[in-house]
Write a structure and sequence with these properties.
The complex is a heterodimer of chains A (87) and B (231).
Chain A (H helix, E strand, L loop, with lengths): L2 E10 L6 H12 L12 E8 L3 H16 L5 E10 L3
Antiparallel strand pairs in A: 1-2, 1-3
Chain B lengths: L2 E5 L6 H11 L4 E5 L10 E4 L19 H11 L4 E4 L1 H8 L6 E3 L7 E9 L15 E8 L3 E3 L2 H9 L3 E5 L19 E5 L5 E4 L17 H13 L1
Parallel strand pairs in B: 1-2, 1-3, 3-4, 4-11
Antiparallel strand pairs in B: 5-8, 6-7, 6-9, 9-10, 10-11
The chains are: A alpha+beta (87), B alpha/beta (231).
Pfam family, one (chain A): PurS
Organism (chain A): Shackletoniella antarctica
Main location (chain A): cytoplasm
Chain lengths: 87, 231
């Protein structure tokens, strides 16, 4: 079965406040980077999986994100999928 | 009437709850390990505070998959009482028994304090022991207690009177100055539409014995016992 590598980006929905992002933005401003706009901090998840094909892999990853990796109430996610060369 | 207190790895308020239900209220109480799924003998399930599974990924995200939580969902769906305190509230939102989510406090800090709360509903089995509009003081201890829900959900909560406790001033005004963590609508606790599931960030179990400096949390447990005993 083909192997895939997935990169999952979980980000806060735009309507949810991100106090950590705001704190980092003010930290950068203290360093002199007054040219930096709003910062949003999210999560980055890497995983590998086996699946029959890319469509199945995507479908499974969507379910993983909806049910555990992200909380759809407060977060959005984006998945990048890459087929791995089989050894 | 029999209580269950769910015990997760990382729970730390489980014994505080059992002290109230077993020692103060003299009700049989069973500690239920997270891998156990038998709640057949139980009337009330309490999901206690703490840091279940280290709060990895998100607060409450892993706990929701435990066998004990699956059984708790079935218990709630059968119309029986479920109480989630602090991390327990976070778990109840993750598992979908209550709407919305709890995110990082507005000011980034973990808050350990005693705060006034306005009791918005007294017609629930949880709150019959309070007076309408009463202001009570309960301890809070959380880093992720900022209640969030989208506008439609918030409107629904208001329309159905599902907001049970709001952060307020001592004289009962609900405003930004009395909001410790940035919660939308100053929401500190909500129930489901049926009213049998309650989740709140403050700790009523830490305010049930005078030796701890306050007993404003005790009527919540007393109301419950009274409601179920007389039912």
């Amino acid at each position: 079965m083909p192997h895939y590598s997935a990169r999952i980006y979980v980000t806060l929905r735009p309507s949810v406040l991100d106090p950590a992002g705001t704190a980092v933005q003010s930290g950068l401003a203290h360093m002199g980077y007054n040219n930096v706009g709003p910062i949003r901090i999210g999560k980055y998840i890497e995983l590998t999986l086996e699946a029959e094909d890319e469509a199945v892999a995507r479908q499974q990853l969507d379910r993983m994100c909806d049910q555990l990796l992200a909380n759809p109430v407060i977060e959005n996610y984006r998945v990048e999928l890459q087929a791995l060369a089989t050894a | 009437m029999k209580f269950a207190v769910i015990v997760f790895p990382g729970a730390n308020c489980d014994r505080d709850v059992a002290y109230v239900t077993r020692d103060i209220l003299a009700q049989p109480t069973r500690m239920v390990w997270h891998e156990d799924s038998d709640l057949g003998d139980i009337d009330v399930v309490v999901v206690p505070g703490g840091f279940s599974y280290g709060d990895y990924l998100r607060c409450g995200a892993i706990a929701r998959f435990s066998p004990a939580m699956q059984a708790t969902v079935a218990h709630a769906r059968a119309g029986k009482p479920v109480l989630g305190i602090c991390n327990g509230f976070q778990i109840l939102t993750e598992v979908g028994l209550l709407p919305g989510a709890l995110v990082r406090n507005r000011d980034m800090r973990f808050i350990c304090d005693r705060v006034p709360l306005k009791v918005e509903r007294t017609d629930l089995l949880w709150t019959a022991g309070y007076a309408a509009g009463q202001v009570i003081t309960l301890p809070i201890a959380h880093g992720e207690g900022c209640y969030y829900a989208d506008e439609a959900t918030l409107a629904e909560l208001e329309a159905n009177s599902q907001i049970v406790f709001r952060y307020s001033s001592l004289d009962g005004s609900v405003d930004e100055a009395s909001n410790p963590n940035g919660s939308l609508g100053n929401i500190a606790g909500i129930c489901n539409q049926q009213g049998n599931v309650l989740g709140l960030m403050p700790h009523p179990e830490r305010a049930a014995d005078p030796v701890l400096g306050g007993v404003d949390g005790l009527p919540l447990f007393q109301s419950l016992v009274q409601a179920l005993v007389s039912a």
